[in-house]
Each structure stands twice: as C-alpha cells, then as structure tokens.
From TrEMBL, chains A, B:
It comes from Bauldia litoralis. GO terms for molecular function: methenyltetrahydrofolate cyclohydrolase activity; methylenetetrahydrofolate dehydrogenase (NADP+) activity. Homodimer. The gene is folD. Residues 151-299 form the Tetrahydrofolate dehydrogenase/cyclohydrolase NAD(P)-binding domain. This is Bifunctional protein FolD.
Length: 310, 310
C-alpha cells in the first residue's frame, strides 16, 4: 500500500476498497460454486479466446484464466494466430457454443481487422455471453425482459455503490460521464434500474462541470486522465472512477509510469464523501464479475436461479 | 380545428403540427415505395395480428391497416379469438416469419394473460419486428451495432424535434420524463445518439420540476394528465408531449370527453418556444413511422439501404 495516494489523507472522502469488496465477491462465488457442484456435479466452465499476441490482452487473459483456476472452474484458453480468418473464428465459437462443459465464452477484444467484432459477438449463444455484449443481452438489460448477462465492469460499479451507499439508491442523481457500450451506457441502465435519476454526459455536453456538479453519484468512464476535477464534484458525492490511464512517473525513476483514473483523485477526495482509487477500485471488480457471470451461466443452464453475490 | 386549445394564442410557443409533418413523411414513403416497386417489383407487406376484441385495439389495428392500404402495401390482418393459446400464436408468428410477402409483423398489445408477451415478441424475426420491441432491436439501438428497427413513437418524436430545431441537436439538454420500454427508454437512446445530454426522470425522481427546468428538450411520456406544469418549463424549451389521456369534458355536453397530454398545454405554451398539441402532435407520427419501418424492412430484405424519410 506504499503507493496509496498520500493526498487522500488530507481529504474527507472514504476510499472505496475495490480489492476488499472483490475478495468478498470471490469468496461468495467460491461458496456458491461448491454448492452447485455438490448438488449437481456441474463445474462452471469458462473458455477465453485470444487472437494474436497483443501484450495487454495476454495479461488480461492470463489474469482471467488464473482466477478461474483458483475457483476450480473448468478453464480453457484458445490462442489463435493474428491472421486467423473470421470463418475459423466463427467455427471455434460454434464449437464452444455446442460444448456442454463450457458455460461462458469470452472473446478478448480487440480483434484483428479481418474479423468483424459484431459478427463474432452475435455468434456467441446469448446465455454463454459472459461479457454481456450480445445485442440480446444489451436489449434484455435495457428492457428488463428476461435474464440478461450484464457487462462485468458496470456490474462491478454497482456492487461498489451498494457497498458504499446501501441497497436503496432510489431518487439519487447519477451522472455518467462517457457513453461507451462497454461501460457508460450499461452503467446508466443499471443506475436507472435502481431508480436513480440518470444523466448521460459526454464530449458534446455543453457545461460538463455544471452537469457533474448535480450528481450524488458520479461514474467517470471516458479514458482521459484526471479530466474530472475536484471543483466538478458536489460536496458529499460518491465518485466511481472507471478510467485506467498510464502516465509517466519520473518521480519513480526514469522511464517509469503509474496509473491514474479519469478523476483527479486528490482534488475530488477533498470534496466527495467516497471515491474509488486507481488502481484498486473498479479494476479488481471486473474479473470478479466475469467469474460471477460464468457461475450464473452455469446455474441458468441447469434451470437454477442466478445466485446472489452483491 | 375548432377544438384547438384557445389559450395557445396567448402563449409564445409555436404549435408543432404533427399532422402536417406526418403527411409529409407519408408522401415520402409513398414516393420511396413506388421507387422500390418500380425497381424490384417488390411491394412492402405488413401483417397485423390482433387477439381478442378490445375496442381500442380494434381502432388502432383498423387505422394501421387503412394506412397500409392507402400506400398500396400488401396488408393482412389476423384476428384471433381471446382464448387463443400461446402455441397457436407462436405458430402464426412462425408462418408470418416464413412468408416472403410479409416484411413487417405487428402484434397488437396488450395480449391476453395466457400468452407470454415477451415470448411472442422474441419469436418475431428481428428484421420483421416493425415495432422495434425484440431484444435484438433494443440492443442494436442501444449499442449502435447493426441496423435496428426503431420503435415508432420514439422515432416519430425525433422527426418532430429535427423538424422544429434542425438536424443538429448536439449539446442540447434533453429530459425524458418516464422510462417505459415503449417510449421513455428508446427516446432517450435516440436523443443520446443525436449527442444530447440526456437525463431520464421518473416517479422516483426527487425534484422533478427542477430537473425538467434544466431541459432544452422535454419529452413527457408518463401517462398522467397535465402533470408537467408551465413553471417546470425553461423559457424557450421545445416540448414533446407523448401522453394521451382521456378526461371528462362537461363543457362539450354530458358524458363527453376530450384528450389531453401529459403536459398542461396552455401553461407550457406560454413559456416554451415550441410544443406538440394533444391530439395532433406525436399521435399522427406513430402510424407514419410504422409504415416507414415496413418499407425499411422490405428494403433491407433485398439488401437495399434504408430510405431516408426524416
């Protein structure tokens, strides 16, 4: 913890400990997994597909596989060469769709240019789409009809919010900064489902500081380092920082870098009542929720209810 | 026009004439339909399915069929008894899915209790789902991936807005009051796609008047008569009233009724710069957009681009 932001000490905000919350969620998943296996003999199975040799993707895929192993899941990784054809990719997805030992399929993005990402996502059976990117799952999340697979990072944000603010977020003003399909839009849906008054702000928003200043809950997911400043935050607000930006850190030595979020942490911590740090906030939640979705997919495949983890 | 709200004369708002805009859209559909038929021999086909004998549903279905006839579409209506089984309903949907002369399938809601609405909607082939209710279409609208069928009333609201404010709505503050799957949520998606800063407000919103007062664009879709008052409206705002509420009108004689929207028209017209009346605002757009979706479905089935109608 030597790298914890020292300035948080001078602020009033509680730091939301994503590592601790994520560890609790993982414990709960381990418990529910043992129960599932004891009662049915079924072990959740996750297949991760990686195309090419992008180093960042390899790190992510490795971490996902290790967490699945740790939980005793069936865990398989398919690594395909960078010049894999779309046809070969769709064939593999088809095999995984038909494999009863595999409950969750995750295709690591980005994909090389010759493969149409949307075609691959739509080829995954919606009930095995543990990333929650299939249009059927996006539609179910939006309409509330049927059991949706919810994207991992937004679902993780919601667990952190409930852990901080309690189960009833109804009537709170939430401002989501950023409208990506990965985070901004689904997190807005989830906040709306919790009865927040939800505003989605973005690059075309006219007076972004004023809009953010309305928020009891701020979710920042734009991918711009420390863009959200302290004086944008309403005193007492809860701030969830989804951004992960690597910046030079000459104070750590030549060529060294460090991670910062989309929120200027020290400034915001002096105003907010609670805030997630980067790293150690939202990040650790994402992998935990991927495991939760895989367990959920296994349960739903057996007609069992989705286990409560939040 | 004898029933036009007389108090609008004292206000400053322009009345947005949905009947006139809808007539222009219908003209454009007629033109594009002739072109499609001239070039390909294909005539757009719409099948409307009505279960039971609800009088309001019969009126809607009749109006849809007449408009389709007027445009020279292939138009078929299936009327099933109120005790139709879900199985029989799904069989009919399957037949219509496979019928190459039918490009659009509309199942009039509500359905009787023994039929699961969501199961029926999910059974319609997404490219024939001219209501835009299939989760795939909801998901495509939300994610922007693929060609979505957009629900008719929200799409109609957007045409009225562009007709009033011009093509660039970017940066405007839009507040949608109501979060139904039919109107509130999809219209919020469409406003976001037009780069508005979008807030969704609803029954749990804490200070609804203050939230609405922020809006350059107000879309009211709650189904509560004249709930949005004049002093909720920011001077100069554009107000789209989706509500249709029938109330007693003793001034027209005993037992008479009249239609009012979700907005107190006279009050709001004194503050807004433009406002839709009820009736004659959003209402006429819905049927026009249903025809537009049927034409679009016919074009897409041939691999032709979706015609521009807005």
């Amino acid at each position: 913890m030597a790298n914890a932001p020292s300035s948080s000490a001078s602020g009033i905000a509680a730091t939301i400990d994503g590592r601790a919350v994520s560890a609790r969620v993982i414990e709960r998943i381990a418990f529910e997994t043992r129960r599932l296996t004891d009662e049915t003999g079924v072990v959740p199975g996750l297949a991760v597909v990686l195309v090419g040799d992008d180093p960042a993707s390899q790190v992510y895929v490795g971490a996902k596989g290790r967490k699945a192993d740790e939980l005793g899941f069936v865990s398989v990784q398919h690594t395909l060469p960078a010049d894999t054809s779309e046809e070969a990719m769709l064939r593999l997805v088809g095999e995984l769709n038909d494999d009863p030992a595999i409950h969750g399929i995750l295709v690591q993005l980005p994909l090389p240019a010759q493969i149409d990402k949307n075609r691959v996502i739509e080829a995954i059976r919606p009930e095995k789409d543990v990333d929650g990117f299939h249009p059927i799952n996006v539609g179910r999340l939006a309409s509330g009809a049927g059991e949706a697979m919810v994207p991992c990072t937004p679902a993780g944000c919601m667990i952190l919010l409930r852990d901080t603010l309690g189960d009833d977020l109804g009537g709170l003003e939430a401002v989501v900064v950023g409208r990506s399909n990965l985070v901004g839009k689904p997190v807005a849906q989830l906040l709306l489902n919790e009865n927040c008054t939800v505003t989605i702000a973005h690059s075309r928003t006219r007076d972004l500081p004023a809009v953010v200043r309305r928020a009891d809950i701020v979710v920042a997911a734009v991918g711009r380092q420390e863009m959200v400043r302290g004086d944008w935050i309403k005193p007492g607000a809860t701030v969830i920082d989804v951004g992960v930006n690597r910046i030079p850190a000459p104070e750590k030595g030549e060529g060294k870098t460090r991670l910062v979020g989309d929120v200027a942490f020290a400034e915001a911590a002096a105003v907010a009542s609670a805030i997630t740090p980067v790293p150690g906030g939202v990040g650790p939640m994402t992998i935990a929720l991927l495991m939760a979705n895989t367990l959920k997919a296994a349960c739903l495949s057996l007609g069992r209810p989705s286990p409560k983890l939040g």
